[in-house]
């Protein structure tokens, strides 16, 4: 019986401090984590994900923010979202076309046919004027 009591006391004596350490760890970890590097250390903000490279000179630590690709990507996503909304608004305001296609106007067709006719006549004249060369 005394062995069981001693075992229970030992179990409680070791379990309570271990449980207290597990509970205290998140509070001890804090907002930032530091990772050593050859130049100093890298500081990671665990709430925002921001990274900073910190160096020590003369016993004073100075941290400078690392360039964030995430911020640049977010700015590009925001720009594209605005552009997409503007294009959708312009499309909604554009006149609706029958069958999805807009047919050319009569004068545009006439211009195109006149150009093709002029081109063909000129080509035929060039071909007629060209004399066949004698084969040597």
Q: What does this entry look like structurally?
A:
There is one protein chain. This protein starts with a helix and ends in a 7-residue tail after the last helix. The longest helix has 28 residues, at 2-29. Mean pLDDT is 77; it is low at 6-12 and 19-25. It has helices at residues 2-29, 69-93, 106-129; strands spanning 32-37, 40-45, 51-57, 60-65. A four-stranded antiparallel β-sheet has the order 1-2-3-4, with no helix packed on it. Strand 1 (32-37) and strand 2 form a beta hairpin. It has 136 residues and is α+β, with helices and mostly antiparallel strands.
Provide tags for this entry.
18% strand; four-stranded antiparallel β-sheet; 136 residues; alpha+beta
Terminal-residue CA separation:
128 Å
Major beta-sheet overview: 4 strands, antiparallel
- Could you say which overall geometry the principal axes of the C-alpha atoms support? elongated
Number of helices: 3
Sheet-strand content, in percent, reads 15-25%
- What's the Cα radius of gyration? 40 Å
Residues in helices, as a percent range: 55-70%
In total, the number of strands is 4
- What letter string, H or E per element, gives the SSE order? HEEEEHH
Quaternary organisation of the protein chains = single chain
